[in-house]
Structure prediction request, 333 residues.
Amino acid sequence: MGRLGWRVMTAAALAALSVGAVAGCGGAASGGAKPPPAQGRPGLPAQQPGQSFYVSDQTSAARELARTTGAEAETLTRIADQPSALWLGGQDVRAKAEDLTVRAAAVGRTALIVAYDIPHRDCGRFSAGGAADASAYRAWIDQLAAGLADRAAWVVLEPDAVAHTLDGCGVTAAAATERYELLTYAVQELKKQPRVRVYLDAGNAGWLKDLDRLAGALRAAGIAAADGFSVNVSNFYTTEQSSAYGDRLSALLGGKRYVIDTSRNGNGPLGDRDWCNPSGRALGETPTTATGRPGVDAYLWIKNPGESDGDCGRGEPKAGDFWLPYALGLARS
Prediction:
């Protein structure tokens, strides 16, 4: 299917992703928050030298590592010691964005965030949910922007939202128009924050084939004001495949730059239709801005490696739950 597919944004799943609790009850962040001490496990640096992005000890992999010992713990550090994105959706977004970016700023790093609250999210599939309506979404974006303030952050905006307007999943023409307007609003509001970069999601190499049509949808969704677009979010296409796809799309968008999700693409896809916890996959390139590829701003771990894509009919954990055997398989490969 080539979609995200894995995320049912329950409170439990979001809490596992958060720096606080991603699905708590609403409310703006309190003012005057003090930067917490730099984080890291005893005997290890809080942040690895040369890394631009913030490595949180509150990711699902880091939390699991605190409960793991021996050889498994050593293997799991290959995930926990790398920066991965915080997915934000639902209530209390301002407090969560502020918490993460304050922590990142305290150690001189850039926070990675996914904004994921568009109305009618994921066409009612695994990751169904999102803001109740257009007005609620604009208010949610306002709160996210306020939480980021003047601190450094890269935001991947609404994975799948544009592609789902084109793939026949049931988004009506009127709903698509509203979605483009909301995404344009989101880009504009987030870009008012001086140190925020915004990447509007553009699907993956195995999904939409008509890139002219996709480029038109991205333009309607405000790509002109964004820093670029993201590809391969939560998918497995190799960096070569993803960069070829990104380059073609960039050429249609006046040279817009892009980022690639390399969190699980080390062995490429098992098949174009096998996106749900496919076996034998591997971690890809670690997050970096030094890609050596013209047009590619960074390799990022946007999907958090080790979190289940959902119950794919084989007894896997529900979407968003950390799954230690799968995480170890990714790290060992």
Strands lie at 86-88, 111-115, 153-157, 196-201, 228-231, 257-261, 296-300. The two ends are 24 Å apart (CA to CA). Residues 1-40 have pLDDT under 50 and may be disordered.
